[in-house]
Structures are given as structure tokens and as C-alpha cells.
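Sequence in, structure out. Go.
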Amino acid sequence: MEEDEEGGGELTEELWTGEEKDRVLPPLVAKGRKVYLRGNAKLPGRPYAQKHIQLIPKGPKCLVHVEDVRPSRLPSGIIGCLLREHYPGQVMMSDVLKAIASSKGASPSARGKAAGSVKLMMSFDFVFILHVMKELMGITDLLCKKLQQKSQDIVNAMHDVATTKELIQKLRDDGWTNLLCDVMLFCKKHVISVPDMDGFYVDFIRSRKEDETSSKHHYKYDVFTVAVDQQLQELNSRFSVQSTELLILCTSLDPRNSFRSFNLENICLLATKFYPSDFSEHERDNLRCQLRHYELDVLRNQEFLNLSTIAELCQKLFETEKLTDYHLIDRLIRLVLTLPVSTATTERAFSAMKLVKSRLRNKMEDLFLRDCLIIYIEREIALTFTTDTIIDDFDARKKRRVDFN
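Output:
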């Protein structure tokens, strides 16, 4: 046991739950001993742990360590309530802001900003915008995660873009009633004043004396419709008509469902319209002939029926040595696989370049830099190589004076 520096006695460690903490804590506080909380319970307004607490008395102070905290009530703040209902586990921001606003130790400027933030969070405008953001982020979450992946399947990306656009358009056409109902129920549950939707909307920042509109018109068209249209415009600008056409033509090579999307004319159009410099006129004619044999051979082959991605199709053509017969189709598939659906891979490459070619290694040549970047970016593959395999590969390249074995 350790000795107490202040009291001269031994430090004791006690563990209790339930009724024991109610029996032990009040006497400690009544004796004037300060109680310090560690862990999640140090957030303002959080109750003690429901499972167990570890007590270490030390002189005039008492250290209470919270192992598990489960609040017995929902936070009163709007952000905390919404995040707790839809995104459990997030920090209850409203309680923290309220504690700052009422804290005597905080500066007047910090208390004023915290009080203003709490007042804003208790307004109908804030709740409405937060619900709109929740709906839009819920729809686009899947697409955002897919586009941030290092390796991207272009066919799946095309499907995700199409479904995201369709869901956002459906939200714009039919989502207003359900959204307003959810906002009304939320405000009623947490006692938030709701404006009259048929009355005039009053903007305290910018006056609307000359152009008076109803509250319903403001929230539906100036806020909801504008936010949804911006999302649609962003998707349409990133995935233009030409890009969408390219993605649609690429789906003709999709091997899923026994090559159900196979279309000979679309594949020929893909090579002619988007890759004219990669295929000569003679090769484009041969591509059509190869596709006819490909349709009767590969599409009926049992080894190709269970494929799900274009990358697996390319690998299977290599394994079965059919790429020698369909070398033009293999070339087109490889060109499709190199399409950059997102900028995530490029951004990671530039980030890696900053780490590899630093100020102390600024004279690194391009060839050596390229090799280092490949190893760094594809480090998951590089970790599978052992030292012995690298030595054996180096030794097998040519005969050397020294025997590495």
C-alpha cells in the first residue's frame, strides 16, 4: 500500500455500487471534503455512475473515479436531444454551454457567447435547419462513404449516385409534410415555441416590410427547397451528363447477375466515343468481332457466372488465359478500371508525397520517390512481403558472385 503524503496514513481503495454510494458520498460532502470527479462524469450536469465508482480518500480531498456513466434523463439542450435520439454517444453540447453561461469562473465574453448559443438552440429556426441537415446527411451518407474509399467500383458508384439523386428528388417532392410534422413533434416535446405558419415571417436581421411572406413559404421554399436544390446541383455538377453517360456505358461490362447488363453496341460506343486514341479504326472493327465470340463463350462459361465486379472479371480473364483471345476487351476493361470516380486516392497520394519528400529529403529523384510512394500508399500489400522473399527475388534477377542462400 502507498502512504498518504498529507495525512501520513495508508491510501485505501474502496469499491461500491447502488445504495453504498448514496450512503458514503453524503457524509464525505457534509464533512467539507471536496469531491473531484474523473472520467465522463466530469461533464456538467452528468449524474454519478450507475454501475460502480472507485473511491480513493486522500487527506482533506476525495478522488472519485467514474467507470461507467449512464444518464438518467435526456439533456435539455436541443443539440443534445437531437443527437441523443438520432446519433447516440455524442457529447451533450447544450449542457456544457449552460454550465459555461452560469459559471462564475468564465469570462463575461464567454458567458455571453454561451448564453446566446443556448438561446439560439432553443429557437424554431435552429431546430428546423437541424432536421433538414439530418435528412440530407442521412441520404448522402452512403455515397460520401463510398467515394472516400481507396478502391472504388465504378458500377457500384454509378448505382449509388443514381439512388442518391432519386432519394433527394423524392425528399424535395414529398418530404415537406413529414419533415414539418417531425419538427412540430420535437418542439412540442421540448417546449419550444412554434411560429404561426400562416402568419407573416419576421426576420429580425433583415426587414421584410416590402416583401412580406408567410412563415410556411419561408421555411418551405427559402430554407428547405433551397437546401435540397443545392445538394442536387452539387451532384449534377460533379456527375455531369457526359460523366453519367460514360458510367452508364461502363455498366455494359458488369458481370453481375450472369452478365445481365451486357450490351454489344454500348461497349463499342464506349470504345469509339471515349477512347478513340486507345483503339485504332481497325482495332474497333476487331473489337466488335471479339465481342461476338465473347458473348457466346464467356457469358456461358460456368467460371464467370458468379463474378460481381469488373475487377474480378479482369482477374478471371487472366487466370483462364482468355485475355489472349479477347485482348481488346481486356484493354477496354483495364481502361474502365482506371477511371477516377473520386479524388480520394489522388488526395491521399499528395498527402503521402508531403510525408515522404520532406525538407530533409528534398533532393530525392523522381524514380526513387515513385518507388517510395508506391510502398507507402500500398503499405497493406507491402506488409505481406517478407525479407526472405525480397532477397530471393533480388537473387533470382541475375547470377551474382555472392550466394544469398
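Check: The chain has a mean pLDDT of 74. Strands lie at 14-16, 34-38, 53-58, 61-66.
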